[in-house]
Structures are given as C-alpha cells and as structure tokens.
Design goal:
Blueprint: E1 30-42, E2 45-57, E3 61-75, E4 80-91, H1 98-103, H2 108-115, E5 130-143, E6 147-159, E7 162-166, E8 173-177, E9 180-191
Antiparallel strand pairs: 1-2, 2-3, 3-4, 4-5, 5-6, 6-9, 7-8
Amino acid sequence: MTRTATLPGSDGCPNTTSGLYPYDVHTDIKELALFVQDTITKNNWVFNLGLRGDLYNGISIARQAEPRVGAAYNVKKTNTVLRASYARTMETPFNENLILASNGCTDPVINALMASTISPCVSRTPLSPGTRNEFHAGLEQAFGKYLVVDGEYIWKYTQRGFDFSILGDSPITFPSSGRNRKIPGYAIRASVPDIHGLRPML
C-alpha cells in the first residue's frame, strides 16, 4: 500500500501507477460499566443475582442493561450440585483499526480492495456494539472425598458478534461483525482435592 511506481504485470495492472495511501485518523473510545451483585443462600439453594449497565461512547453510542442470574441446588444425600445460569452481555467491537472498519465502503480504496475478496464490502455504517444471551446448565458430582466431576452445556446467541477481517492481501486487520451467531458447546472437568498444596486436574 506504499509503493509509488508502475505496478508489475504480475499484479494484473501493468499500465497502472500506484500512489501513497495516507491514513491518519483519531478518535476516543470510552466505556463505563456499573454493576451490583448479591448471593442469596436458602437451605440447599444458592442464588446469584446481578445487574450490570454498560455505557459505550465510541464511533457509535450504545447503552445496555445486562441482567445475570444463576441458581444452584445441592443434593447433599448424593453429593450432587445442579445449576443453571443466564447472562446478557454487550459485545463491543475490537478497537484495533476500528475507524478503518467503520469508514468501510465509504473509503474508495477500501471499497476497491474488498470488492475483489471473498467478503465483499457491504457496510456503510459505523460498527456498533452487539448483544449476547448466554445460558449455562451444569452438574457437579462428587465421588467420595477424592474425585469431583463437573460438566456443563453452554448456549450462546449473539447479534452483531465481532471477528477480524483482513484488508486485501495486506497484514492490516480490522473488526467485522456478523448478523446472528449461535454457538453451543459443552465442557467437562475432573478434579481432586488439594494434596500437599497441589491440585491435579484431568
């Protein structure tokens, strides 16, 4: 992007002379988060309740209230813990080259480069934060005093989630957003109690 000479035939543009592409733009990204959280225990139940508020001032502006709630039930007779949780979160775009991404197709050079890639340049509006609804359901089972197995299933539903794209064939990356994403998955862990200050993990 800095060559200022006639381009070689291998580029497919032997009669074209390139020029400098100066890009020097600045903006401030400010984000403030406020939250409250509490844990309530009642008999075999444990409840975690929370509320977070995010204030995002970047190239775009977003405000969002994000509730979080979790519940766990301890079946003491079988040493089993059943749990479930829900959280809503704000998904902010990456700051790296955010201005470049937000200019997007309005910049003729970026438009021309992206038009020749697999991901054509389609957006003409600044990137704004997205939202995620995340659910967890899990079970923790103790086997005697020396083994605990913990498993959970996770569902993530994201609107305007963010990833990185590449500008043409350059090393320049910038954030890009997708419309809707669903990511399910599971996690399993086995652990044993501390033994002389060490905790083996499986």
